[in-house]
Amino acid sequence: MHKLRKYIIQNLSSLFISIFTPLFSIASVVFLIKLATFTAVIKLTIWEMTKLYLFTIPELLFFTIPVAFFIAATLSLYKLSNDNEIVVLFSLGIKPSYLVKVLLGPALLVSTVLFFNFFVLFPHTKILSGNYISYKKSEAQFNLSASEFGNSFGDWLLYLGKENKDGTFSQVFLFNKKKKEEILIAAKNAKLINDSGILRLKLTDGQGYSYSKESLTQINFKTMLINNTMDTHLTPYRSTLDYWTSSERARPKRNMLITDTLLSLFPVLSLFLVVSLGVVHARHQKSFIYLFLFLGVAVFYGSIMALKEPLEFYAIPVIIVTWLIGTYTIYRKTVAKRF
């Protein structure tokens, strides 16, 4: 029996890797495309984009592992059925419930990893990712483009005539329109300085003009500093429990907690359905296994989306009990009764 268990798990492992790898790759590509949109606002090096990608790995794993396990477990039994190995097992007196017991160990392991992933790792990576992006926005690495209108520096509209090789700018103009006056500053050169989150625009050799209904003022300067304190909006993080119990963004976190708890339990809850779809008689049954796999995932995920708002946390026991009863009924009628 030990060799039989090992043989089934080996088939499951090989199929799981072959299914998980393309799913994870597709999810990674989708995120990288989304990540590329940040470069329209801030400059990111390859290493910085890699760090942001690493922050999202727990989320990517969470949405690919449950589906990959469900498909791999079903197809591993389906392969044994097509090779007539399942029929041989049943003819030797092994019951279908043995398959459920064999798959229960890997399913519990996967569910434990998923629960730890979303409950412990996800808050860390979510806050780290958000804070990192906010911090990058506060740095002096914005996409300031020379010879283009639309640049801004705090409340100032900024035009940069030319970018020099040393990172400074030439032919610089700033404009600020207030309620009672308008200010125009022209400078030959400008340099952007970041001092601990405070951006300073250092202007040299220029003139400043202030216009209002009462007066027109002009000044000449050798050096002028314009400060702009950027808002970083860093989110504090104390502990995992504090993240889930805090009142900040309570409704989204509640929905996430409901969804992720049920998705973590999906591998264990679907074992009866896995055996029902995977165990077939190759000669006498025409299997639509891929259609049923899609429907199984769609029904479970759709139930979560439909019930998490009206039932809130009651959706967890309702979906668990309903799903187990429904899949066990299918298991009794399609597998246990025949074999």
Outline the secondary-structure elements.
Elements: H1 2-36, H2 46-82, H3 85-91, H4 96-138, E1 151-153, E2 156-163, E3 169-177, E4 182-195, E5 198-211, E6 216-229, H5 240-245, H6 250-269, H7 271-278, H8 289-311, H9 315-336
Antiparallel strand pairs: 1-2, 2-3, 3-4, 4-5, 5-6
Q: What would you note in describing this structure?
A:
- By secondary structure, this protein is of the alpha+beta class.
- It folds into two domains: 2-138 and 235-336, no CATH class; 151-196 and 198-229, no CATH class.
- The chain has nine helices and six strands.
- The chain has helices at residues 2-36, 46-82, 85-91, 96-138, 240-245, 250-269, 271-278, 289-311, 315-336; strands spanning 151-153, 156-163, 169-177, 182-195, 198-211, 216-229.
- Strands 1-2-3-4-5-6 form a six-stranded antiparallel sheet, with no helix packed on it.
- A hairpin with a 2-residue loop joins strand 1 and strand 2.
- Helix 2 (46-82) packs parallel to helix 6 (250-269), helix 6 runs antiparallel to helix 8 (289-311) and helix 6 (250-269) runs parallel beside helix 9 (315-336).
- The longest helix has 43 residues, at 96-138.
- It is elongated.
